[in-house]
Amino acid sequence: MRDIRLAVLPVLPVAGMLLTGVAFAHWSESLLLTGSVATGELDWQFTAVGHLDPGPPASVPDYHCRDNFEGPSPYYWMGDKDVGYTQAAITNDPHVIEVILNNVYPSYFNSISVYFKNTGTVPLIIEEALIDGHVVMGWNEKVRLDLNGDGENDLEIWWKANIFGIQLEPGDDGPQTSFWVHVLQGAPRGASLAFTIQLIAVQYNFSEHPKPTIGLNPTSLTFDAVVGGPNPSPQSVTVSNTGPAGSVLSWAATDDAAWLSESPTSGILGAGASEPMTVSVDISGLLAGTYTATITVSDPNATNSPQTVSVTLNLQPAVYSANLHPNEGVDRWGKGDKDWKSLTEEDLNLLEASDDNRYRDNKEWHEKYDDHRYIEFGFENIPAGATVDNAVLKFEWQLASTVASARLSIWNGSSWSSYYDLPLPSPNTDTIVTLDLKTGYGIDTAAEVNNLRVRFQATDGGGAYTWHDWVEVQVTYTL
Amino acid sequence: MKTAMGMFGALILSLAITGVAFAHWTDTLYINGTVKTGTFDAELSVGQGYDSEPPCKDVSSISGTLSNDKNTITVTVSNAYPCIDYYLPIDLHCVGSVPLIIQSIEYNGDLPENTTLEIIPDPAHPNENVIRVGTQLHQCQTAYGLLHLHLDEDAAENTTYTFSVTINVVQWNYYQK
User: Fold this and answer.
1) For the complex shown, is ipTM > 0.90?
2) Which sign, positive or negative, has the C-alpha torsion B50, B54, B56, B57?
3) CA A423 to chain centre
């Protein structure tokens, strides 16, 4: 019995510590950050290769050039023999192109183009090319190769592509990359000449290549045009690489307006080089107004990418002048159903010009104004969307000596104006009355012009006539 | 004998009477108590991750997802490559009623050599509490930090590395320097 109690005694402190431990656990806490880091991939591959002198069956005559690719132009030319040919192919390693010149001879020439793309997930920059292990780092750089190690150069190669320092985004194709090959006098006889091409690309932020800087001049353009008129003349923006020697600017331009376009939209420029980019505007379908847009020129590798050109298009409304002649009219001399006539084509022609060919009203005027006695003119139309700048009525007429008064009133499509009492000219003498229809009668919309009617009335103590030589509404409007 | 018995009874009676009188001049006092303990709790929150890639070269990213209990953040860094700094804002909140102190921060994982993994002060919260050992937070207070990751050239391409960061917080008066 005593032994059992002794055995229980050590258990009690342990149980106590466990309980205490539980209490501690409640009063502390661990917070956790768990992470995974998936790295990307830097990779590129050749995608195609081409050249001037394939072998059979597509063989062509051999090309030739001078030593050191000397000028003058042409720097190379096709000869009349077809004995040599070139094989160029991407090897099993897509980072290597092998070129084999077969049955070639001194002065044999070929231009070889290779194509590549960024097949990785990280932007890369082409740092250098390796031609059979020889480093080419510059545009226009020439290398000579002693392929068989006999101490004499067998080939010379002129690197013609300005690709070093160009950045390629993942999935992007690189520019066409060409180089010239020339067989020298030191080439071995009876041997095929083989060499390889490789490119060295680095992660963009590890490139030691000088970075280009985008230069744009000017940085703003203004185009002026008139609705319905011709497109404004294209303007030019000079794109330049103002970066240090050795830098290469691979620029691309985009814009944010359908009416704007650029040509070219991309280019490659060495340090200090520049080229024009033509900016054009197409105003078709645009309404009058001021439009703005932005051209963005970018190169992800440039120190100042992107740069922008602001473009403003001032599209002025087209201003039109129209002389609207009466195209219909009514001459009414009473309230009866037959007491009126429509003005005929012949009548209307008499009113078209101030030419002393006059329309005479059909019946004599009465002593008093009468709502059923008048001559009324309707006119040709202007475009429905036009904005009326000015509208003037020209009314040329003459009267007999007994005419006592005359007046005009204007219908704007919804109501008649108050009467305008015409000053009475000397009898049998033409007089021209000018009425400003816009300021005096509120005719300031296309609808009002197109519904315009002018009514003439007169009184005559002796029952005489009036003669009408010229009725015209002169309108200026914009679209 | 009767007299003696009477005197004894009288004595008993007087004592009884006196005893009653004594009972009127004593008292018993009680203290009844209730102990309500506080709460000790901390939570995390996570912000929008960012990195040092130029805007036109934004091919990689860092992001974080908070667990439902707000005690775990799952960090994901995608398409990472060397010499880019990845930042993820993380906040530590004292949501209990008892002040806490950050006792330790432990970093683990299989990240490549020369990788930087750290929690640094968040410049977006200057002059605020920082997630680092020794920081004390009272109820409703927050400490701010940036999880910073930087891979060196030792990182391999097309590889997934894992890591964990454990932030241990304790009741303020249990903090061990």
Assistant:
1) no
2) negative
3) 59
Read off φ and ψ for residue B17, nearest 5 degrees.
-65, -45
Pairing of strands A177-183, A274-281: unpaired
Burial (CB count <10 Å: 0-12, 13-18, 19+), residue A390: middle
Question: For residue A205, which residues of chain B lie inside 8 Å, CB to CB?
Answer: 57, 83-84
Cα distance between residue A472 and residue A397, in whole Å: 12
Interface test with B, best of A22, A24, A39, A169 (most B CBs within 10 A): A39
Backbone angle region of B83, left / alpha / beta, with phi > 0 → left and psi within -120 to 50 → alpha: left
Q: Are A380 and A325 within 8 A, CB to CB? A: yes
Q: Which two three-digit tokens encode residue A325? A: 């002649």
Nearest chain B Cα to A25, which residue? B170
| Residue linked to tokens 């009267």 | A399
Tokens of A449: 């012009």
Query: Is B81–A29 a contact, with Cβ atoms under 8 angstroms apart?
Result: no
- Do B74 and A34 make contact, defined as CB atoms within 8 angstroms? yes
For residue A172, how many C-alpha atoms fall within 13 Å in the half-sphere facing its CB?
A: 19
**pLDDT of B43-80, one tens digit each?**
999 999 999 998 778 899 999 999 999 999 999 999 99
User: Among A339, A364, A333, which Cα is nearest to A467's?
Assistant: A364
Interface contact A27-B81, CB threshold 8 A: no
Q: For chain B, which residues make up each domain, given as ranges? A: 42-174
CATH 2.60.40.10 domain locations along chain A: 214-316
CATH 2.60.120.260 in chain A: give the residue spans.
Answer: 321-478
Cβ pair A35:B77 closer than 8 A: yes
d(CA A358, CA A364): 16
B34–chain A Cβ distance below 8 A for any pair:
no
Contact A460, A405 (CB under 8 A): no
B46: amino acid identity, one letter = V
Q: Does A33 sit within 8 Å of B72, measured CB to CB? A: yes
Compute the residue count for chain A. Answer: 479
Q: Do B57 and A300 touch (CB under 8 A)?
A: yes
pLDDT of residue A140: 78
Quote the CA–CA distance of A47 and A302 in Å, as a whole number.
26
Q: What is the CA radius of gyration of chain A?
A: 46
C-alpha to C-alpha distance for A156 and A144, rounded to whole angstroms? 4
Q: Is the CB of residue B171 less than 8 Å away from at least one CB of chain A?
A: yes
A214-316 classified as CATH 2.60.40.10: yes
pLDDT at B11 over 80: no
Residue numbers in B near A42 (CB within 8 A): 81, 157
**Is B137 within 8 Å of chain A by CB?**
no
* A340: Cβ contacts below 8 Å, ≥ 6 apart: A330, A331, A332, A333, A334
Residue B12 has pLDDT above 60, yes or no: yes
A300 touches B: beta carbon within 8 Å: yes
CATH T-level topology, domain A321-478: Jelly Rolls (2.60.120)
- Interacting residues of B69 by C-beta distance below 8 A, sequence separation 6+: none
B168–A28 CB contact, under 8 Å: yes
Confidence class for position A23, pLDDT limits 50, 70, 90: very low
Rounded Cα gap, residues A51 and A113, in angstroms = 6
DSSP letter at A185 equals T
A30 touches chain B (CB under 8 A): yes
* B contacts of A39 (beta carbons < 8 Å): 79-81, 151, 155-161
The answer, yes or no, to whether residue A9 has pLDDT greater than 60, is no
pLDDT at A76 over 50: yes
